[in-house]
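Quick one:
INPUT:
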C-alpha cells in the first residue's frame, strides 16, 4: 500500500507525528505535499480512489491554520482514502479535527480515521517538551495498525470526530517574532514563511496581520536572529499553565 503525506508542519512537530503514522500504514511512503509552501500549485495535485493520504496539521487556537485549509481544498482527492491528524501542544484541539474533516471532504477525500496527537508546544516549549515521546510513538504505531486493518477489510465508514459547527472563532494576532542584530538578511525566513509575512528585502519587516505565529522563522534561522519577547512568552506560559498541567494522550477515532 502506498501512502502520501499532505502536511502543514512549520517547525517539524506535525511531520514527526505524521511519519510515525505513515510508516505504520505503508511500506512505501510516496512523498510529501507541503501545505506550508506558499508558492506550490496545489490545484495541480490529484489523487485516485486507490490512494491513501495522511493529512496532518497543527492546531492553532483550536482551529486549522487558514492557509492549510485553503490549500487543502485546492487538491483533488477523487475519493482517495485519508487519515486526518491534528497535532497540539497539550492544551486542547477544540474544532481542529472537525474543520480538517470538512476541508478534506470538500477536496474529495474519503475520511477513514482521525487522530489527535501531542507534540511540543511551538511557543511555550516547556509544555509537551520532548513529545511525541516513546509512549506516544507506541500508541501512534498501534493506531496505524488498527487503521491498516480497517483499510484491508474494505471498510470505509466515516469516524465521528469531536468539534463544533460553526467552528470556534479564530484567534487574533499572536506573538510575532522579532529580529535581532545578528540577522544578515539571508532571506531564508522570508522564503520559508508559510504565509509570506516577512519582507524579502528586509527580514525585520513583518506584516503583523499576516503572521500566524507558526515559529518557523525562529526554528530555522541559521543566525538565531529571530526570537520571541520574553515577557510575552512568560505571560502565555501562565495563561496556559492550568490547561496544560494534565498529561494528554493521543486519541484515535475510527
Amino acid at each position: 500500500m502506498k501512502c502520501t503525506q499532505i502536511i502543514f508542519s512549520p517547525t517539524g512537530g506535525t511531520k514527526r507525528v505524521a511519519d510515525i503514522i505513515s510508516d505504520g500504514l505503508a511500506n512505501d511512503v510516496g512523498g510529501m505535499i507541503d501545505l506550508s509552501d506558499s508558492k506550490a500549485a496545489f490545484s495541480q495535485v490529484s489523487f485516485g480512489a486507490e490512494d491513501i493520504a495522511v493529512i496532518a496539521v497543527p492546531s492553532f487556537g483550536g482551529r486549522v491554520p487558514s492557509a492549510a485549509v485553503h490549500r487543502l481544498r485546492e487538491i483533488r482527492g477523487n475519493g482517495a482514502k485519508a487519515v486526518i491528524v491534528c497535532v497540539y501542544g497539550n492544551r486542547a484541539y477544540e474544532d481542529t479535527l472537525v474543520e480538517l474533516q470538512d476541508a478534506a471532504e470538500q477536496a474529495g477525500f474519503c475520511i477513514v480515521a482521525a487522530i489527535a496527537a501531542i507534540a511540543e508546544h511551538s511557543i511555550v516549549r516547556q509544555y509537551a517538551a520532548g513529545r511525541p515521546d516513546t509512549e506516544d510513538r507506541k500508541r501512534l504505531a498501534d493506531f496505524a495498525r488498527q487503521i491498516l486493518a480497517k483499510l484491508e477489510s474494505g471498510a470505509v465508514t466515516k469516524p465521528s470526530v469531536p468539534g463544533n459547527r460553526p467552528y470556534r472563532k479564530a484567534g487574533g494576532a499572536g506573538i510575532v517574532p522579532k529580529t535581532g542584530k545578528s540577522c544578515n538578511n539571508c532571506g531564508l525566513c522570508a522564503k520559508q514563511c508559510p504565509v509570506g509575512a516577512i519582507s524579502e528585502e528586509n527580514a525585520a519587516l513583518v506584516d503583523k496581520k499576516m503572521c500566524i505565529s507558526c515559529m518557523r522563522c525562529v526554528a530555522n534561522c541559521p543566525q538565531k536572529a529571530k526570537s520571541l519577547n520574553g515577557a510575552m512568552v512568560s505571560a502565555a506560559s501562565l495563561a496556559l499553565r492550568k490547561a496544560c498541567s494534565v498529561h494528554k494522550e493521543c486519541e484515535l477515532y475510527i
